[in-house]
Please model this.
Amino acid sequence: MAERERRTAPPYGGSFVPRTRVMDGDGVRRAITRIAHEIVERNAGLDDVVVIGLQTGGVPLANALVEAFARIEGVQVPLGTLDVAFYRDDIGLRPAMPAAVTDIPAELSGRTVVLVDDVLFTGRTIRAALNAVCDYGRPRAVQLAVMVDRGHREVPIRPDFVGKNLPTRRDEAVDVHADGVDLGELVRLRDHA
Amino acid sequence: MTANLLSIADLGAEGIEELLRLTDSFVEVSERRIPKVPTLRGRTVVSLFYEESTRTRLSFEAAAKRLSADTMNFSVATASVTKGESLRDTVVTLEAMGVDAVIVRHASAGVPWQVARWVDASVVNAGDGCHEHPTQALLDCYTLRQRLGSLVDRRIAIVGDVKHSRVARSDVLAYTALGAHVTLVAPPTLLPPSLEGWPVEVSHDLDAVLPKVDAVEVLRMQKERQTEALVPSLREYTATYGLTRDRARLLGDDAVILHPGPMNRGVEIAAEVADQPRSVVTRQVANGVAVRMAVLFLLLASGAAP
Amino acid sequence: MIGELLVQGGTVVDPTGTRRADILVVDGVVAAVGEAISAPAGARVLDAGGCLVAPGLVDLHAHLRQPGMEEAETLESGSRAAALGGYTAVVAMPNTDPPVDCASVVRDVLELAATACCDVHPAGAITQGRAGTRLAPMAEMAALGVRLFTDDGAGVQDSGVMRRALEYASGLGVTLAQHCEDAGLAAGAHLHEGAWSSWLGIPGMPAEAEELMLARDLALCRLTGAAMHFLHLSTAGSVALVRSAKAGGLRVTAEAAPHHFTLTAACAASYDSVFKVNPPLRDDADVQAVKAGLGDGTLDAIATDHAPHPQEAKEAPFDQAPPGMLGLETALSLALAELQLPVEEVLALLSWGPAAIAGLEHEHGGPLTEGRPANACVIDPSASWVVEPERLASRSRNTPYAGRRLTGRVRHTLLRGEPVVVDGEAQR
Model:
């Protein structure tokens, strides 16, 4: 789970304490390669594909995906980043500062947008991202790639490409990073003190 | 960060930095084909302007609308103040209609503080008398950083009627909080009677100051205050403190000129100087909307305010 | 009618000294003073255990707003506030509507004063309409008992007019009191000119606006030989001017208000106009100088400058709100707590000092000895209380001390033997 989500999910400001390693670094790399192949296959190539990583956890995965495309197909796919802070439906309910400036490098109208995030949970971030994408243009299709789908959806959204389906309890937390994926809990530091 | 923006002093260096960072995001939004985000849908922002200022009012209104807030306008000419309604009654009435933020402009210093005591809505000071104008200072900082990068150890001159300038007071706080050195340049009659506690230097010699600064901020010479006879004549003021064409040549190559507007061309600044590439006056206006979006976002939507 | 009353168990403090004594009052007059007086049958007994029993306080400077501004204060509400604050006599300022500048308005005020909770003595205006040009009919007002004349709210700007007023007044045996403020230097000001006014963007009046007129009037006293009283002096420079004038033998007296030795210009930082007053709250050095002046006899009296204003007026923007703050119910507590002076000296400043200036020494200000009118207050010096604006007796709420915890409070007040305040409650 990205640092920002950690700050903004209950318990706010908690720190992630890993319990179980569910994927190692090789597993993550293999999953990215597989997803890259699936995307190429689904879209019969990479023409008109634009990759957009969601701030902040989706950005390194989107980078890795674009690198994989370059390896597999020898194509440089346009890469953007999107911060959904201004589109969230829980505005005012919890802290929601944008982490970075949104950067959409290409025209989205008529193209296939692949949104990339680390963890798919309630689906609300993706709902917000869909709204945001539509403000930039009218894509031909929007697809969703995530490293971990942990369930507990609150809106009718499903991923097109998944690194790993991981059954979780609602109060657990998932942390995706370059060296693997951990399942654990968010613990408020002062609870330890 | 409180739920109000009354003074630059409330923000401190950290708060200013945070708002300037946030402004980057809204500059991006403003550059989009549809420069609008749904962030403040269902929120109501009211402008309560007891003093006409079309540009500031429009800037706040554009900011609120780009955040999808509903906007309402209370302007003095049409309003019940002319019927003798008290400030407090007006403000309480507005709050009863359900507003989330009140943007206050008033010719009397301190009115935003009074309003903040009476309402739960967020209060933004859009200029109070001769006291403060915090969003103007934020947009000045943002504009200067676009041109100069960091303001640490930069030298900035503020020239003109500092005594009556809310922009000058907010700018002094903001520039120095970001590490700049500020010199006030004005005849003694246009300086506040006491500068005790102001982190500034003072000069009465504009020609000597100009070659040394990275930016010069020219204040509006308020013709309506001439009645006080604080300077013998505007002609003499222009001759001694106006940024004339000849004086502008004293500036370094990269030095920037700011003006909070509206300009009295030919009085405090020569028309040709105002149009030079080093003048960032229109940049200030454009950034004003993004800065005010950042302020409204921070107060109403970020959850960062209590 | 009032019968017999015994003030029991207190320590009497008056111009003759301090001693443990009970006071027996018969028909409004002190009948006996001594230790362990036993109450005659049927006499009312007021407990003064642990308390100071002092001559009633005298305020040289209160705005009771009647006639004309009854929504702010009336003689009834203002005198009740005064009685609760320990006062048995108050000089009411003439800046009413109409102003007290002729015999008929004096008569009106005196008529209202007949039923007040303390003696109210109207001060008369020096000039007609307080406009600073033509002398008011001082003789006809003096004939009705007016002893103090002032244009308070403004100073008499014209030096020639002021000279004539002083000369004329000296023939009547009355005293002129000046609100020292040079109109040119004070024009448009709402605060003390200094660091705070400069930062807050509100025009200030320099200390010199007060000192300039004070210096002029001292010169006029020298020129005319007249006596003069100076109202609410607030600056270090003013205290120094009075000190040297007294050393030079001029017949001048001066007062200071509690807010000028307890509050500074910094209070205005919140833009709460409850801190707007004229003369304005000054700097810390001025506060220290005023305290020193009260301690060394340069300043002769503490006067409240009690200036009630209705809430809606004080809710205007700072530069539009009227100046003034309440004072009658807090002055004694503040003086006891803040001046670090012996209690005898504090009471001299609040009671017999001002009584002499107002020409009331036969009625008020003690001493509490046999045959004297029983105008007295009983002060519990250890009572601790919090200033709650809505619980004050004044019709207005503009106290700058809201929420402040004070020590020392009036328990009983006697007006010619009648207990007008008993156990901190007004009786009429």
